[in-house]
Design goal:
A hairpin with a 5-residue loop joins strand 6 (about 150) and strand 7 (about 155-160). It is built from five helices and seven strands, in the order H-H-E-H-E-E-H-E-E-H-E-E. It is α+β, with helices and mostly antiparallel strands. The strands form two sheets. Strands 1, 2, 3, 4 and 5 form a five-stranded antiparallel sheet that branches. The protein has helices spanning about 5-10, 15-30, 45-55, 100-110, 140-145; strands at about 35-40, 75-80, 90-95, 115, 125-130, 150, 155-160.
Length: about 160
C-alpha cells in the first residue's frame, strides 16, 4: 500500500478513519499490478483551503471553512502508474474515463461516498466525501457550527 495515503488517512475525521483505510486497501487491491491509488488530500486546514481558493487558475469554489475537507470528511485521489515497472509509481493517470478511474469511482460510490463528478456545477472529479448515516450530504454550514473535538493528531473535528 501507499504509505503517504495511509498517513493522510490518519488526518480523516475519527468516525471515518478506520472505514476509510479499509476502503482504500480494498479499492487498491482491485487495481492491476502497476496501478496504485493515492489520496492526494484528506484533511485540509482553513488556511490551506483559503490558499487553494485564491490559486489561479481556479481549482475550487470553497473558501476556508467551506470545504468538507476542512472537517476531515472528504478526500481527493489520484491514480499512479508504474510505467517503468520499477516500483516508483511516478506517473499520474489524469484521464478520468480510464479503466482505473472507473474502478475507483464505482468502488467508492458503491460504498456510499458522494462523488464530486456527479455535482451539477463545478464538477470535482477527484473528490469524494462521506455521507451521513441517513445517506444525506454534510454541509459546511452545519459542520462549522458544531462543537469541536481535538484528536490525538492535534487536529480539531466537528463532534458528530
Amino acid at each position: 500500500m501507499d504509505k503517504i495515503t495511509i498517513e493522510r488517512i490518519k488526518t480523516a475525521h475519527p468516525i471515518l478513519r478506520n472505514k476509510l483505510e479499509k476502503h482504500y486497501i480494498e479499492c487498491n487491491n482491485l487495481l492491476p499490478k502497476g496501478v496504485r491509488l493515492r489520496f492526494s488530500h484528506v484533511y485540509r486546514s482553513f488556511e490551506e483551503q483559503k490558499a487553494l481558493f485564491n490559486k489561479k487558475p481556479k481549482v475550487t469554489n470553497a473558501r476556508g471553512g467551506q470545504s468538507i475537507h476542512n472537517y476531515g470528511l472528504a478526500f481527493d485521489y489520484v491514480v499512479l502508474l508504474d510505467k517503468d515497472n520499477n516500483g516508483t509509481f511516478e506517473s499520474i493517470e489524469w484521464n478520468i474515463s480510464s479503466e482505473w478511474h472507473r474502478i475507483v469511482i464505482n468502488y467508492f460510490k458503491n460504498k456510499g461516498y458522494e462523488w464530486g463528478g456527479d455535482w451539477k456545477s463545478f464538477k470535482d472529479y477527484p473528490h469524494f466525501q462521506a455521507k451521513k448515516v441517513d445517506g444525506s450530504s454534510y454541509t459546511w454550514r452545519e459542520l462549522i457550527k458544531l462543537p469541536k473535538i481535538k484528536d490525538f493528531n492535534g487536529l480539531n473535528y466537528p463532534k458528530l
